[in-house]
Amino acid sequence: MPASTGNPMQDEAVVTIYERSRPGRAAYVAPPPDVPDVPLDDILPPALRRATPARLPQVSEPEIVRHYVRLSKRNFDLDSGFYPLGSCTMKHNPKLHERAAALPGHSRLHPLQNDTHTQGALELMFNLQHALAEVSGLPHVSLQPSAGSHGELAGVLLTRAYHEARGDAREIILTPDTAHGTNPATVTMAGYTVVNVGTAPDGGVDLDDLRAKISDRVACLMLTNPSTLGLFDSNITEIARVVHDAGATLYYDGANLNAVMGLCRPGDMGFDIVHFNLHKSFTQPHGGGGPGAGPIAVSDRIAPFLPVPVVARDQDGTFRLDHDRPQSIGRLRGFHGNYGVFVRSYAYICSLGAEGLRRASQVAVLNANYLKALMARPGIGEHLPVAYDRHCMHEFVLSGGPMKRNLGIRTLDLAKRMLDYGYHPPTVYFPQLVDESLLVEPTETETRETLEGFADAIAEILAEAAVDPDVARNAPYTTPVRRLDEAAAARNPVVRQPMD
Amino acid sequence: MSDYLAVTDDDLDVMLRAIGVASFDDLLDAIPEEIRMKGALDLPAGRTEQDVMRHLADLARRNTSCDDETSFLGGGMYDHYVPALVDAIVSRSEFLTPYTPYQPEISQGGLQVMFEYQTAICELTGLDISNASVYEGPSAVAAAAYMAWGQNHRPEYVVSEALHPHAKATLRTTAHGWGGRVVEVPLRDGVTSADDLAAAVGPGTGAVIVQQPNFLGAVEDLRSLSDAAHRAGAVMVASCDPIALSLLATPGECGVDIAVGEGQPLGNRLDFGGPSFGFLAATSAFTRRMPGRIAGQTTDADGRRGFVLTLQTREQHIRREKATSNICTAQALNALAGVLHLAWLGREGFVGLGELLARRTHYAREQLCAIPGVTPLHTRPVVREFAVELDGDVNAVIAHCQQAHGINPGHALAADFPGHPNGLLVAVTEQRTKADIDALVRAVRSALGATVGEVAV
Questions:
Q1: Residues of chain B with CATH 3.40.640.10
Q2: Which of A55, A76, A148 lies closest to B328 in CB terms?
């Protein structure tokens, strides 16, 4: 244990719940036995039973609560401060949504309940399907996928089903070299080979490279627009034409949908398949790494292959789960999707309405461009130039290359120093195309003062580095732990509590 | 309407001037005119917070939840009691609102939870390594098959007929992508036969996948099934109920290579089917093939104990098309609920809960099967759920029980098991007392009487 730092959080010993365990302690009180006390051996032969009990902790309720409340204080969170993590859309999570989702009629509804007893839930899902169809400009929706990457998998399997139904074997999927890592990983899972398409100097898809690589062996182009550089690709209708002329599908990664709601629609751009991240654009709290939901919307030609079930409305106005879709790719998970997430996102859409969604995207774009302008001021701009000097959409990329050369600190050091200033850093080292990149997404729910305060903090960190770069190189100082040895963790993995 | 924005007219002026444009529309110059939306989205106008709450409450009232009837529904999700401390902890902003822990120095709480969760899953399954969660149960089965594919590139997956129907369907859909196919082994008296399995596996078998207890509630003999799989060189996968693992021989003890399962019974709401979490654990031979996040212990620059995401060279953000999976966002908050529930139950309480469920399930099966017209679908040991065949229309029985008695007697099996047109799957939890079970028995007796024309009791 290092010497005291005067920071109570750092001085506190790190103890796991297992290390708090003492024989004889417990929180749970079992219900009194009511059915006949048949010997267990008569119900379950010893040969089928485990040899020793699971070594779960033995702790009282107050200890459990105190343990996890203390752990919670070792997290930074969106409700505590600015979180401009690029491509993650860390917008405010309205508290109403938690209250609505907790209503027993939603939270204690069993997924195998008959359709006649789940009309409220099915109506909610039907309305959400409609809203997502409207926002995307693609008429057919499946709510089933569990997260963005799961939606991508759904989309690529739909592409496969579409081509196979036409007897058209294709083996390549194109992704831009700026794509999120889930895109190529998904392509491999779905049995395709990835070919990268280059990026033009203006940050858009390199059309010549696309034309060179498109062929009747290409099943799909996966794209996000705006791209992971935060730039809208003005050539999108030409890209769609090139892709469609070759018989391929055009897939929209909805990670960046927050830039365009009510302003323009993937369907109108020529996309065939879109996934949504309800935990990004539609305010499902991220939960420290889930849950999310990744619904998909598709065009008419893809619709027959959508996963089952989808929610349908009959002539008489009743809702039902429709399993009778003979060309469906089948299921991607159990039951009907992450309904608890649907409740929250539906509540959000009801609150904002058509005009509110459009306004949200407008302010997301406004805030990003304002913060980008603040980053150009002297003291910042010469060290952290914007990678593509055009109007951005909801996020923008800075390069820390000049900072590294001028001041001797890397993007990683800047990010770690931001922690001492009470900010979550932007996404770092992604997209990989830009040297020492920072991807900054402020979202629409932040105030002008917050953006200005963030810019001031960056200016201070850079000024401080000009005097003594070691300050940033050794940061952070005030967090519960300081820089962690990730290499040692990977070299000698300790991934569970050792037990005696 | 609520829009959660803060930009005032003054702000807008200042910001546009700083950006150097005259109007907001100038910022959209990259969007070609022909694809800009001309009109408004066809959606209702925004509403106030109280209006939206009323609408969501109206919709909730039109559902029949487990608060509204005595439910014996199971089939993968169960109405267990969720202790109050789960709600209190998972609703804390510090757990609810962060992203995935990309900055470990300010994410130690979440990372330590993952570490504690992984430990609990290793203890439940008797296996070496667990990840920090996958989406849910059936897709966890597909994730295990993809691990086997990475290991042996054998395209055939031999599954038990009593693997959850949604897991079978998910596996078929997903494996089709990489060229995999699914072969089913039928049941004998409610369980998967090791002899039939041995006959079904071969050099093309990538993995054998069974469920414990199986979909019809029967406890499988995992050891003999694992032996049959391994003799063919296949990876053995078991999809397990986490609460049943309080009593049952662990996957690790039975020679299982990869154990997965639906985590909902551990501290998660029913939520009409999600979100919950899937768990996935394996022997150390599969460490480099694990999908998704894994938290590991390390030290900081001053030597303090800390936690980080580790073994990340498996993952999509590093390996891209060579990643072991495409998974990114998983179910961290739901896994936290799981570890909280397990800590609350504790070492002895967890076993006690398992025994309570086994005795009540046994009692319920005995009592129900004492009714004329109700026969067990199998006579195998059961620990939380069982299946019966009714001598009468199962859907009419369910409807009668719901309408006349406020009891949901269980799940009709016909859609997934056509050989059991009047099969009923009945689940018991600690929330269903002996009195509830006795009421179920009276309701089913009355329903069977009513459906064959007798006077209902």
A1: 85-339
A2: A148
Q: Which residues of A touch B83 (CB under 8 A)?
A: 27-28
| A478 inside 8 A of chain B by CB | no
Which residue from A351, A177, A357 is spatially nearest to B48, judged by alpha carbons? A351
Check pLDDT > 70 for residue A2: no
Residues of B in contact with A374 (CB under 8 A): 18
* CB < 8 Å from A in window 199-218 of B: none
- CA of A466 vs chain B CAs: smallest distance (Å): 23
Tell me the pLDDT tens digit for each residue of B223-270: 999 999 999 999 999 999 999 999 999 999 999 999 999 999 999 999
Interface predicted TM-score (ipTM) of this complex, two decimals: 0.98
CATH 3.90.1150.10 residue ranges of chain A are 355-486
What is the CATH code of the structural domain delimited by A96-351?
Answer: 3.40.640.10
Of B47, B63, B135, the CB nearest to A351: B47
Nearest to A108 among B269, B307, B323 (CB): B269
Residues of chain A with CATH 3.40.640.10: 96-351
Check CB contact of A365 with chain B, cutoff 8 Å: yes
Contact B333 A290 (CB under 8 A): yes
B19-75 pLDDT, tens digit per residue, is 999 999 999 999 999 999 999 999 999 999 999 999 999 999 999 999 999 999 999
Q: Chain B residue with minimal CA distance to A111?
A: B272
Q: Which of A61, A353, A479 sits opposite B105 (nearest CB)?
A: A479
Does B100 contact chain A (CB < 8 Å)? yes
Q: Say yes or no for a CB contact (<8 Å) between A188 and B99.
A: no
Second CATH level (architecture) for the domain A355-486: Alpha-Beta Complex (3.90)
**Partners of residue B172 in chain A, C-beta under 8 Å:** 330
Chain A residue with the nearest C-alpha to that of B324 = A185
- Region(s) of chain B under CATH 3.90.1150.10: 70-78+347-451
Nearest to A489 among B169, B296, B348 (CB): B296
Half-sphere exposure of B241 toward its Cβ, with a 13 Å CA cutoff? 31
Q: Which fold has domain B70-78+347-451?
A: Aspartate Aminotransferase, domain 1 (3.90.1150)
Please report where in the chains the tokens 């040895």 appear, as a residue: A485
- Which residues of chain A from 215 to 274 reach within 8 Å of chain B, CB to CB? 231-234, 236-237, 260-265, 268-269
Q: Percent helix, strand and coil across chain B, each rounded to 5?
A: 45, 15, 40
**H-helix or E-strand spanning residue B262:** strand B258-262
Distance from CA of B298 to the nearest CA of A (A): 5
pLDDT in tens, B84-104: 999 999 999 999 999 999 999
Question: Taking the domain B85-339, which CATH number applies?
Answer: 3.40.640.10
Answer whether residue A230 shows pLDDT above 90: yes
| B9 close to A (CB below 8 A) | no
> Based on the number of CB atoms within 10 Å of its own CB, is A39 exposed (0-12), middle (13-18) or buried (19 or more)?
exposed
Amino acid code (one letter) for B113: V
